[in-house]
């Protein structure tokens, strides 16, 4: 096979890739990438020669810097990626921190408190203490790095959870022992389980009571004292219908 034939085959392979307008295509790909992309990889995606892609990237980077955009296009670690400009670092940091705080809801704070004081603890027990299902909140706390797995319960096999060192860092303490004395105000798990068992028993239908026949004594008319007749609603006694107003 000659060099000319080999080169032609390479060109065919390159042109087989869908070709888009070079610079907008590069911007679109770099915008969604979370890691630096090598020039060769970008060229294979957009279907343009490597030299053309390299030149387009250099031109884009120069234009962003000249226009004073809020971001730069940089060649770092063997690839190209968008970065926010250093002079806007304070604004970016404020946005990121505010977003994190807003996503930590009251439910998440309550769940995190239970884990902190009862750790290691299972999701089921946290749910029992809070009275609601905490699966979604626990996933959020795990994703935020505030809670981590701590083995399994020997009896039930359920996963146990505890707070992390990042949790200590965020609240400004060095040990769980420095937490305020709130644990005595949380319900004891033994008492809680007894209460839950009693509540579960209430869910079952109660047996119908057995009504014993009542035999009223027969009173002779002559034995009744002479007294004026009173209405059953008169006097200071309780009304026979339990206080329900009758129109």
UniProtKB/TrEMBL annotation:
PANTHER family: SEGREGATION AND CONDENSATION PROTEIN B. This is SMC-Scp complex subunit ScpB. One of its GO terms (biological process) is chromosome separation. Residues 217-247 are annotated as: Disordered. Transmembrane segments: none annotated. The keyword Translocase does not apply. The gene is scpB. Keywords: Cell cycle, Cell division, Chromosome partition, Cytoplasm. Pfam families: SMC_ScpB.
